[in-house]
From TrEMBL:
Organism: Cellulomonas persica
Record keywords: Signal
Protein name from the UniProt record: Peptidase C39-like domain-containing protein
InterPro entries from the UniProt entry: Peptidase_C39-like
Top-level lineage group: Bacteria
Domain Peptidase C39-like residues, every copy: 191-322
Signal peptide: 1-27
Classification via Pfam families: Peptidase_C39_2
Taxonomic lineage: Bacteria, Bacillati, Actinomycetota, Actinomycetes, Micrococcales
Length: 359
């Protein structure tokens, strides 16, 4: 049995046996996964914004663990994310007080980000943004009645709406008909180990915001990365705690994408990258069928979401930290900047057992 499959089996047994003194996995999940309504949207700790039932969410740990075992049996290389079960297992040592503090912090992030979630809903659906919306959600940094608010309500491009603001990060676009944006040039970095896609992604995020420059080894320490990889929750926490990207339009949160659409996914990129000029933490399954620059299939993976365009077909721009040449004979020069068709990026995201991203 491969070491990856052995890890998957060990985690499956751990979760099935319960966590931190609980008698069953269901009891453990009830303690860890707490759901609440945040300004009309459902949010669950350790899951993020979601539309699924609480029962379905708690069952996902077991369902996705089985999916992960199937994927591992097919032989992809693990490039460094964690399954939901592995992330749950990492919380086993928390005291009730620590768990409560963690849940409170996540709910505070949700309250900070809910306006951005609703803005994406309006952008995606084409429904009018109601009066008073921007005053209600000051984290968006849009003044009610401003040129920026008018541009968003008029449905002009995200670039043009961004240019109507006064943030130093919002580059002026002279052509409101063009809806595209690419940020973070000259920051591409390759991951230093086969399981450091998380630290490498965060190193690029760090370089892109012009703040403190930390090595991948330091990021691995901050994220709690192990040889199994890094959890999406740790990636989200890293964006909020150690970069300044969250200052642009609210805290980063995890979003469950299993019950959303490719259109919503694209609108989220348009809003985050095009409007707020800040990146997305992509969470994909690194497979050849989705990423044509690969020569091999691989496992769960993080990338920088740094751009989009709807002017020449819907595409998403990424920075991939994984260079196959470092880990596979005959591997491709896969690291660096790529432009991926929306249907491929969406497929790769749903192919990952987590089916989420941090936005």
């Amino acid at each position: 049995m491969s070491s990856i499959r052995m890890r998957a089996l060990m985690v499956s047994v751990l979760v099935a046996g319960g966590l931190a003194g609980t008698s069953s996995a269901t009891a453990a999940e009830a303690d860890v996964v707490q759901c609440a309504t945040v300004d009309g949207l459902k949010f669950c700790t350790e899951v993020g914004f979601t539309k699924e039932s609480t029962t379905a969410i708690r069952a996902r740990v077991h369902r996705t663990m089985a999916s992960a075992n199937t994927a591992f049996a097919a032989g992809p290389l693990d490039t460094g994310d964690l399954t939901p079960a592995e992330q749950l297992a990492q919380l086993a040592g928390l005291t009730p007080e620590q768990l409560k503090a963690r849940q409170d912090a996540q709910l505070a992030e949700a309250r900070d980000a809910v306006g951005r979630m609703k803005l994406v809903d309006y952008v995606d659906s084409g429904k009018p943004i109601p009066a008073g919306f921007f005053a209600k959600y000051p984290q968006l940094h849009v003044k009610e009645g401003s040129a920026q608010a008018r541009a968003l309500r008029a449905g002009t491009s995200m670039r043009f709406a961004a240019a109507s603001g006064n943030s130093t990060r919002l580059a002026v676009s002279s052509d409101p008909s063009k809806d595209y944006e690419y940020i973070m040039p000259n920051v591409a970095r390759d991951q230093k180990t086969s399981y450091w896609c998380g630290p490498a992604t965060m190193e690029m995020m760090d370089l892109g915001d012009g703040g403190s420059l930390r090595t991948q080894a330091k990021w691995a320490e901050l994220l709690g990365t192990t040889t199994d990889g890094t959890g999406i929750g740790a990636m989200k926490d890293g964006m909020n705690a150690y970069t300044t990207w969250d200052n642009t339009a609210g805290k980063y949160v995890t979003v469950d994408l299993s019950d959303r659409t490719a259109s919503w996914f694209f609108s989220a990129h348009r809003t985050r990258v095009g409007f707020t000029k800040s990146p997305v933490v992509e969470h994909v399954q690194l497979l050849m069928k989705y990423f044509s620059y690969l020569n091999y299939n691989h496992g769960g993976h993080y990338q920088v979401g740094r751009g989009y365009s709807s002017t020449t077909g819907n595409v998403i721009g990424i920075i991939d930290p994984y260079d196959e040449r470092d880990y596979r004979s005959g591997g491709a020069a896969s690291g660096g900047y790529h432009v991926i068709p929306l249907d491929k990026m969406w497929g790769a995201t749903l192919a990952n057992v987590n089916q989420n991203f941090s936005y």
